[in-house]
Amino acid sequence: MSTVTTPPSGLTASPAVPEPGERLAADPSHRGAAPTAPRRDAEASRAAILRAARYLLARHAHADITLKAVADRAGVSAPLVLKYFGNKDALFARVMSFESDADALLDAPLEELGRHMVRHLLEGQTQRGADPVLRIVFAPLQGERGDILRANFRTQVSDRLAGRLSGPDAGLRAELAVSTLLGLGVMYGIARGAHLRGTSIDAIVDRYAPAVQAQLAP
Predict the structure, then answer these.
(1) Is the N or the C terminus of the chain less surrounded, counting Cβ atoms within 10 Å?
(2) What's the rounded Cα separation, in Å, for the pair 79 and 55?
(3) Predicted TM-score of the model (pTM)
(4) Residue 173, SS3?
(5) CA distances for 218 relative to 50, 132, 148, angstroms
(6) What distance in Å separates the CA atoms of residue 147 and residue 1, rounded to the nearest whole number?
(7) Which of 159, 156, 155 has the alpha carbon at shortest distance from 174?
(8) Is the pLDDT assigned to residue 167 strictly greater than 60?
(9) pLDDT higher than threshold 60 for residue 6
(10) Rounded mean pLDDT of 44-67?
(11) What angle do CA 160, 190, 51 make, to 5 degrees?
(12) pLDDT of res. 7
């Protein structure tokens, strides 16, 4: 957060100048007064860029995606994308990681994990318009970079889940649980099944989560 310094008497402080294309947050301390220069909302801009890149990667080959397309979808300028991520390869290295997505997907006690995973996927589709873990379905679009997606998915999602399981065949059970979840994601978010989408999330969780949880059990 920037510090505002009061200028000496008789001088006027220069207004803050935003980076090109960067979204700004209004200063709440001056309500009712003349408009003042708002603060930069850098984290929101970074998040919007990552969301835009994920959206495009799920629909187009990496080679066909331009930084301008990412910037346009994120509502920022292409120079701002370069400022925050350096270049296209660095940006998509972040997008091809499932690390933070797995944090959210697996954030529940093991005995409740099936319900949490199903609910997390469905709420991602309905509230955020996408589920980042479902990006693995589009790996065939990405050529050699699809191999990076697959390797990241195995180590950051499937293998990480397996590490939480006790008993025999932990790796197999983890992959079966994840594949059960992805099947629901494909039918709900890609095929857009009318019956699924016409049913409440709570009802789907009640019916489907036991199938995921059953794979997690020894």
Answers:
(1) N
(2) 20
(3) 0.68
(4) helix
(5) 37, 28, 30
(6) 40
(7) 159
(8) yes
(9) no
(10) 85
(11) 65
(12) 40
Average pLDDT, the chain: 81
Distances in whole angstroms, Cα of residue 84 to Cα of each of 50, 77, 91, 101, 207: 11, 11, 9, 20, 43
Q: From the CB of residue 115, how many other CB atoms can be counted at a distance below 10 Å? A: 17
- Is a pLDDT exceeding 60 seen at residue 35? no
* Burial label, 117 (beta-carbon count in 10 A; 0-12, 13-18, 19+): buried
Around Cβ 70, how many Cβ atoms within 10 Å?
A: 27
First vs last C-alpha separation in the chain: 49
Supply 17's token pair: 């100048």
pLDDT digits (tens, 9 = 90+) for 116-125: 999 999 998 8
**How many Cα atoms are found within 13 Å in the side-chain-facing hemisphere of 97?**
10
Counting every residue written for the chain, the total comes to 218
